[in-house]
Amino acid sequence: GAVVSQHPSWVICKSGTSVKIECRSLDFQATTMFWYRQFPKQSLMLMATSNEGSKATYEQGVEKDKFLINHASLTLSTLTVTSAHPEDSSFYICSAPVAGGPDEQFFGPGTRLTVL
Amino acid sequence: DQQVKQNSPSLSVQEGRISILNCDYTNSMFDYFLWYKKYPAEGPTFLISISSIKDKNEDGRFTVFLNKSAKHLSLHIVPSQPGDSAVYFCAARADGSSNTGKLIFGQGTTLQVKP
Predict the structure, then answer these.
(1) Among all residues of chain B, which has the CA nearest to that of A10?
(2) For chain A, which ranges sit under pLDDT 50?
């Protein structure tokens, strides 16, 4: 199956700093990628849809200025959490469908963000 | 507004028995449904899916049933194995023919299969 990677797998940062999380499709091209966050024992909440070559589409309630998404190429999308605060601590997961491929989306392994 | 609901947070079954995980949805526009399995600190992995034009899809030990009139689907695992112990998420989308449609997830059900 298709492989999606994320980097870093975990990160600890101080409050007020910015953190960048990368999502890569390793063996396929992805014009669309999705970013989710998951709080402990809760559902995966879709944050935004990342579109290669155009602006991301954010879900209601997600601050676009706080969660900057850049889909720089057909294999890379980045999520930058700007001026991170402790309430941003969460598990961030990206996914990508294979164009013309299987019906499911393929998920990355996730990034654990802890803001002190 | 939780459009996809998994009302059972946890389920425990004996090895070899059947596991039945349930999922309800409210949005009648949903036309494609997927089940994912997730271990802690990992991304979800795809298990099985079903289109709204079907009422059953089977893949090995996994079978998904869809009842459109009741807006209900279920995942059956038989026989259950200890390695099946994980969190199971039900997901739905409203753009069935396109795998680029956004997924809406339920809250998940933690399955424990006891040896």
Answers:
(1) B41
(2) none
